[in-house]
Specification:
By secondary structure, this protein is α+β, with helices and mostly antiparallel strands. It is 18% helix and 37% strand. Helix 4 runs antiparallel to helix 6. The longest helix has 29 residues.
Length: 673
């Protein structure tokens, strides 16, 4: 064995030390092949071992992790040579047991080498979240293909607010294959650790000795799981086990509700603001909306999530004095204001990504990543988020939170199913196109987009952040990607109806050289869909294992009216594709010899589409991909249009293509006369 260099056992940072493997850890050998199994190579590495051992028998939870990677290519050496471990020193401590390179019979030990660094890396700084975590980093020198890089560490501790209760997820299938995956958990028999199995994880080997229950799971040569990109975000796609020591959701409420309670007197200037709201808003609904707007605008978002700050809100006086806070702080302040204004409200814990799956989980405090407010007024529940940009609409019209399940922090509450979004015509785009008589005439193209509810609030937020000029600059860039010479002639916020929560934005452009040359004297102009095609993403062929996540409920529509100075020769048609959760209707109408109307409507009836209807989903995506209108026309020697054929891009059948060819040849013959 090669001897390590540098100081032995020297502390690296507060809470980070080098130490031997704990006595409770049992190390067993793993297979060390000279050649990696080709089915278990990814990015130049083969994961030979990933091992976790959890100890719940001591004064604090111990979490041991050992990893061994066989380097198969130089690209893999770049990744394997970076040792990283992250902790929150406010409640965690880290022991580094070994950092080694196994090269044939040689063992090169870097555990006590110089070069370990403690880095303060705020990975969510751009989201205004400071968590105080420290990353211990070491660049392992001289790692080559054929080496095995092996590391072993143990993490101790957890937040005091969790009351020492254990909860965790263990995955037995990952995005890359692992040759040998091991999990061990030892706990006193008196501690009840509930388990929930998902997607057939391995069966444990269980033993008991001296009142300690020892459970071990092992998965050998499990291939990589190919995740479905459009599966609902709450879907667990690989084999896994959820562990939780929490008995029920009421125990979670009992642990966290007191953290939001405070009887201290509010600052005088805050009381003045509350009195102003009470005087100006006589109804509970008006007061709730005003309290929400006040909390959203008076307190800027900033999360100091160091230590207990990740789970515990600050005192009200501190929130008000600093005028900043995170979701917990803002929700706590809103609830305090609600009490003064005489309506019922409580904080509610939610999961912004996996909230619709919470109903299937074991109770645990670690299931949540956000805090909102449940306000109850005249028997109706309103789910409000004080961290959003200021929502100006009345309570009934503003966009509420729809996140699946929530845990209100109130006496007698339990996990509660939030309502799904009510159907709304969220985006309605009307386009108008005017085509001139000659090839040199500019095309006038106008978009009138009406956004409602959440989309309207997004438009207002964009304007508040970028300014109207900045927003329209971004819009113009979208147009100019297709029409580089496009010149904006009108960019207006035509209507901002706060009461109905509706915003209408109008853009009009002159498009020079908008016609593209096809062949001989034939040119083409195509409409530009900025509304429909972006609503759905494609999915691979075959039947998916999971539902297809649609992400919204309601309607999106688009209409395109075309007026030309010459005949368009429009052939009307209608298409309709319907599934249980998604309906597309498209039609092309002839309004006159020189005008036509394309109408598209996409209705989302549910958040997810059953896997069995994937073919209908693909058919709808296919229709949207070719729903733009292409106008083909011949010109005479003076550049004057002499006729046109209007069709859908990519939709024409062979018969139509032949027919168009005959028409074009005839028009070219006429133009030459």
């Amino acid at each position: 064995m090669d001897e390590p260099s540098g100081p032995s056992g020297a502390p690296i940072a507060p809470g980070v030390t080098r130490a031997p493997v704990p006595d409770w850890v049992e190390l067993e050998p793993y297979a060390r092949p000279t050649q990696a199994n080709p089915h278990f190579i990814a990015n130049g590495l083969s994961a030979l071992l990933d091992e976790v051992q959890i100890d719940l028998c001591g004064a604090e939870r111990g979490w041991f992790h050992r990893r061994a990677d066989l380097v198969t290519a130089h690209a893999g050496a770049e990744h394997a040579a970076q040792f990283n471990a992250s902790i929150d020193p406010a409640f965690e401590r880290l022991e580094i047991h070994s950092v080694r390179v196994l090269r044939g019979e040689r063992v090169i030990d870097y555990t006590n080498a110089e070069g370990f660094q403690a880095l303060r890396r705020e990975q969510n700084l751009e989201r205004l979240i400071y968590d105080g975590r420290i990353t211990v980093h070491f660049a392992i020198p001289d790692v080559r293909p054929g080496d095995i890089v092996e590391t072993a560490i143990t993490m101790y501790g957890m937040r005091k607010s969790l009351g020492g209760r254990h909860a965790a997820w263990m995955l037995f299938e990952w995005g890359v294959g692992v040759v040998d995956l091991r999990v061990r958990q030892r706990s006193p028999k008196s501690r009840i650790i509930h388990e929930r199995r998902v997607n057939t994880p391995p069966t444990p080997v269980v033993s008991e000795r001296d009142g300690i229950v020892d459970k071990r799971w092992r998965a050998l040569e499990r291939p990589a799981v190919r995740g479905e990109a459009l599966a609902p975000p709450w879907t667990v796609q690989g084999a896994a086990i959820q562990f939780s020591e929490w008995r029920d959701w009421s125990e979670v409420i009992a642990a966290f509700a007191p953290l939001y309670e405070e009887d201290a007197q509010l600052p005088p200037d805050l009381e003045e603001e509350i009195a102003r709201i009470a005087e100006s808003e006589p109804s509970p609904e008006g007061r709730a909306a005003a309290a929400l707007q006040f909390t959203q605008s008076a307190i800027r978002y900033l999360a100091i999530s160091v230590g207990e700050g990740g789970y515990t809100p600050r005192p009200l006086a501190d929130i008000w004095a600093t005028r900043y806070g995170d979701c917990k702080d803002k929700s706590k302040l809103f609830v305090a204001i609600a009490k003064r204004l005489g309506f019922e409200a409580c904080p509610a814990l939610v999961d912004t990504r996996g909230g619709y799956g919470l109903g299937d989980l074991l109770p645990t405090a670690q299931a949540f990543d956000h805090c909102i407010v449940k306000a109850t007024i005249s028997g109706a529940a309103y789910w409000l988020d004080p961290t959003r940009a200021r929502q100006l609409s009345p309570l009934a019209a503003l966009s509420q939170c729809h996140l699946g399940w929530a845990l209100p922090l109130a006496d007698g509450a339990t996990l509660e199913r939030m309502p799904d979004p009510s159907p709304v015509h969220s985006l309605e785009t009307r386009e108008r196109i005017t085509l001139g008589a000659t090839l040199d005439d500019r095309v006038r193209y106008e978009w009138r987009a009406t956004s409602r509810r959440g989309r309207a609030e997004w438009v207002r937020e964009t304007i508040a952040r970028e300014g109207a000029v900045g927003m329209f600059k971004l819009y113009a860039q979208d147009i100019q990607r297709t029409f580089p010479l496009a010149e904006p002639i009108r960019q207006d916020i035509e209507q901002d109806d706060i009461t109905q929560n509706e915003v209408t934005v109008v853009e009009a452009y002159d498009l020079p050289q908008a016609w593209s040359h096809l062949e001989q004297q034939t040119h083409q102009f195509s409409t530009l869909d900025l509304t429909m095609k972006s609503q759905l993403a494609p999915i691979p062929a075959g039947t998916p294992r999971h539902p297809v996540y649609l992400g919204q409920i309601g309607t999106v529509s688009r209409s395109v009216e075309i007026d030309a100075a010459h005949d368009l020769n429009i052939q009307p048609w209608t298409r309709r594709i319907e599934s249980s959760a998604l309906v597309l209707e498209i039609s092309l109408k002839r309004l006159g010899s020189r005008s036509g109307l394309l109408e598209e409507k996409l209705e989302f009836r549910a958040l997810t589409l059953p896997p069995s209807e994937a073919d209908k989903y693909r058919a709808i995506v296919g229709e949207l991909d070719k729903s733009d209108i292409a106008i083909r026309s011949a010109v005479n020697k003076r550049g004057v249009f002499v006729g046109a054929k209007t069709e859908n891009d990519g939709r024409s059948w062979v018969f139509n293509l032949i027919w168009i060819g005959v028409v074009v040849l005839y028009l070219i013959w006429r133009a030459a006369q």
